[in-house]
Amino acid sequence: MAHVVSSLDQPSNYKDSQARLDRQRQSELLDKSTTLYVGNLSFYTTEEQIYEVFTKCTSPDDGGGIKRIIMGLDRNSRTPCGFCFVEYYTHAEALASMRYVSGTKLDERIIRCDLDLGYKEGRQFGRGKSGGQVRDEHRQDYDPGRGGWGAQAQRLEIERRREVEERYADAQDGPGAVASGGGDWKQSESNAPEENKLKRGRSPDDDGDNDAARTATRSRVEEEEAERL
Amino acid sequence: MSYERRGGHYGGRRRQRDDYDDRRHQQQETPDEIIKNAIIKFGEVDANEELLRLEKQIRDHVPRSIPVLSEAFRVSVTEQPYKIPHYATLLRVLHNKSDAPTEDEIPLGRLILEDFWKGFQGYVDKLAWREARLCIHFFAHLTVAKLISADSMLALLQSFTAVLDEFGVSNGRAKKAALCAGEGLLIGGLVLKPHSPTSTNEIINAIQTYTDTTNSQKWLVAPITSLTSESTPLTPPETSIEFLEMLLTTLRKLDESDYVETGDCLPRPYEIYVPFSPDVLRPYDLPLVLVPPEAIEMDALSPITAEGETPVKKDEWPEFFIRLFPSDVSPDFTNPVGYMIRTTILDIVDIFEVNRKECARLLLEYPKWNLPGTFKPKPGSTVTVEPAPGKDWQLESTIIETIISTYLLLPESSRKSIYYISLITEICKLSPSTVGPAVGKSIRRLYSSLSEGLDVEAARKFAEWFSVHMSNFGFQWVWKEWVPDLSLPIQHPRRAFMRRAIEFEIRLAYHDRILKTLPEAMQSPEAYVIPESGPSPFFDYEDPTHPHHDAAQAILNLFRGRAKAEDVITHLDTLRTTLDSSEEEGHVGNVDSLVRSIAVQSLLHIGARSFSHLLNAIERYLPLLRALAGVNSSTSAAASSGTTSSSNPEARMEILSAAAAFWKHNRQMVAIVFDKLMQYQIVDPTDIVSWTFLNGAGVGQLSELGGPMNLSAFEWDLLRAAIDKANGRVVAARRKVMQLRKEADDKRAQDNAAVNHMDVDVEHKPEETPVDDPQLITALKAYSSLIKEQKMALSRTLEGFVESLAPPPTARHPNPQARTVVSESAWESRAAWERDEWNAWETWGWYKQFCRSYAPYLGTYAETLYTVSFARFDGVNDPGADALKRIWNIATGQDA
To answer: Which residues form a coiled coil (chain B) (predicted)?
Structure first.
């Protein structure tokens, strides 16, 4: 159906300046992507609000659902800084979000979605000098949902929302900081607890074949910037 | 296209930074692409003005490529149905002789038409129904323009009515074939009826005969209906109408005028051209076409489908349209013009699903393709058009009414709900001053129909649309006008709607934000509209005076200190021993439950900050959760069945109860926790189903709403999530098997090729090597386990409904009204209904939704499930059981 109008589910031409992936490879990965980058969030929007909107694009009867949400955090203050990743179980669900949710309002802001190569350790943190997203450092306008004026005035505004500030105070980095959300259904083979222990020792992420495959894909993906502009 | 894909400033900057050659970079168009695009864009400014210029451009285009031209026509016709009359005109002028005609010149238009036909044949072969139907529209116009012979057009339509007579034809297939035939007749009747009135009559009768066989299905999916039998008249046609009924009404009406009135329904710009006389140009005879049988999807899987294959066929139910406006605002169902308008709007909505913004724009531009005077001019429009008598409708209301109709289709709309919701948002954004009022009026109309029998699933979707819409428009709703309804019984559908809409709004925003939008009368806790406080967690052991406060704190501290799961398990064992000896009452069985509750609630407490915190907590303590669920101490039976169902069902119920208690003020979190407990295989879908029927009604409800067994939309959401999970797992497992099969086949083929290549003279028989690799064996085993689980979940749900709606004397909290509300007299006296009656009524509604939305799955297991749940009622006189069985039989196709 691309003859008369263009489809809204096309990825943007975002290309990381540091990424060593060529266009071809990136586009192949995006064609299977189950992850969305979501931008222009209010700093105060919760994961549950995000869940509520994005769950409307799920297809549980097709083996889908929301796998996990990774909130973008200010590197220094560990507070939300206005972006997140939403990971589904299927590619079709990510496409549906591009078509139906991107460009609509969440928490009274128009949010923007983009297909993403997938979460990689460290990407949950902002890469701006102040710790937040780069775009907030260049911003000239007053944006109450994103800490008011650009970088300087943020502090005052954030004081007002101690709850939000504290929510992610315990956020970890390094391997295993982010949960996998649960993998494919697996036969409980005599429930060998030994095997489970072993798995947990490695990473919470390799629950299920699907995840293992995804991790492998990920390691092939060259290093890239932690967040988008 | 004028459409800008992304919002201004972000995109701009990124584009500058991007020094790569973008893969979607505008490429130089080839001459063929230029002519194709010119055809596709035909009429965007003014079709009449452009016609002759475009004709010349097409004729002058060299080198001439008929396939390119006909493809452009196919794209145009199947993707821009509103322009079909103009494409018929374009093809008509292309039938004129060229400037320098040769003796035996075949008109260019004819060459294009012949090639176009091949494309149509392709759509039919693929059973691409919408494309085939729109091509038929095109052919019908060409028949009226005398470019296609009436005989061959009738034959084409008859090959579609023939589908209706097929033995065991599916409802979905019959419905689509009927639309193809009926709409072809509608457009072409002016020529077809005079040619053969018998044939056109036969087409109408064939459609009538078919729809007469679907009366009970219609009853089951009517948007506004009573619970009583389908023999009572359906809702009056002024409120809602079934699609094929509307088609038949239209055809009958047009037939009376020998289809002359069709000229009032759609433009025929080609009419100004005098038809060719047959000795100059014989009309084209469409070749015969046969609609191929439906593809059976089982082929690739046949070996593993020994039991329980579930070919999921949706779109099998009759479709209804509802009326929200009076006839002077939007056309009524008996008006043939209305049929054309509604179906065109539906086609636009369906075709442009990939781009809701473009879709919204095209919808608002629709009047330009219809006859002048059909719709009121835009406010402030400078062009004055004489309103056509009996028309002059309001475009925005007509569009919204049609979108709402298709959104509220039962058991489900063909696209995801959120598509229609976002589409309405876009339309509002394009023209707030005209669309806003139409949306407001639609909401009021639907709201008032809540007490007239609006189906419970339609009501749930209404609340969903309402909340998302409000979230996009600043939560501005005049709640005040519904304040008088606070005097209705607490479970009255209108009050249930208010509560539900508010709950959904809070999920999208936050409690204080929504509270602020309500009038004082609705803010008070006694109004039961909005909870007193936000949806925060409720930790039973928080209170320092609670007898188990200290025990819970100790566990919390272990979690906080990231103690190993095994250490927590050891600690719980100790705690169990301590409690055992200290419990004065000596409830031995309760100590296990108590420990389970403390542990689960403490874990959720750790994970209460956010969805991610929940996932981290669960993942870190999976072994603990498994131990609490009794999965670790499982028997060999549990291991071999692959599901947790034979281990410790009570333990799993208690885990669910602890979670529901912890999140009793936040039902969204209850659903999320349940979903992830299924995902991590702590509980099975069947556990959720059982739990919901036992405890669901008590979760997060204001105490007023408790009482006897009932299901509301929230409990239905839990059930649906569980059943969908079970179904989704089967789908995923089947995919896996298919994939492994294919890999094995490919590998075998490769090996064979290699063997043959080496010219080894060993006789080779590929069939003799059924190398079932261990992965495939595992996958097949998983598949069969999951099939069992699916059947179990469905069976448990059915059983739950049966026990709620035809409760046995031994039932725990039977609803005394479960059986009484199904009678017609009861419905008539609904003004006097109280909580229990409305509760029972809603539960019946969810039973209907269960049967119709899972019909394809239920049908697979119909016999077993019937025996398990209904056999006990054989020969028993029980109005509840009779109603249950009737609905069941319609859904599983056993009533015909």
So the answer is: 723-750
Q: How far is A224 from chain B (nearest CA, A)?
A: 15
Rounded to two decimals, the ipTM of the complex is 0.92
Q: Where are the domains of chain B?
A: 31-290, 323-473, 549-683, 725-891
B549-683: in CATH 1.25.40.180: yes
Cβ atoms B218, B321 nearer than 8 A:
no
| Partner-chain contact A188 B639, CB within 8 Å | yes
Interface test with A, best of B418, B562, B621, B668 (most A CBs within 10 A): B418
Flag if B611 and A47 touch (Cβ within 8 Å).
yes
The helix or strand, by DSSP H or E, that contains position B100, with its residue range, turns out to be none
Report the DSSP beta bridge partners of residue B322: B240
Q: Verify whether the Cβ–Cβ distance B672 to A71 is below 8 Å.
A: no
* Best residue of A9, A13, A108, A109 to probe chain B, by most B CBs closer than 10 Å: A13
- CATH 1.25.40.180 correct for B323-473: yes
Tokens standing for B23? 């893969």
> Which CATH number applies to B31-290?
1.25.40.180
Count contacts between A and B (CB, < 8 Å).
Answer: 218
**Residue the block writes with tokens 């919760």:** A46
What's chain A's length in residues?
229
For the domain covering A23-123, report its CATH number: 3.30.70.330
Q: How far apart are CA B774 and CA B771, in angstroms?
A: 9
Residues ≥6 apart with Cβ < 8 Å to A132: A74, A75, A81, A82, A126, A147, A151, A154
Per-residue pLDDT of chain A (229 residues; tens, 9 = 90+): 568 999 999 998 877 665 667 888 888 999 999 999 999 999 999 999 999 999 999 999 999 999 999 999 999 999 999 999 999 999 999 999 999 999 999 999 999 999 999 888 888 888 888 888 888 887 778 788 887 666 544 544 454 466 777 888 888 888 888 999 998 898 875 443 333 333 333 333 333 333 333 333 333 333 333 445 4
Cβ contact (<8 Å) for B639 and A57? Answer: no
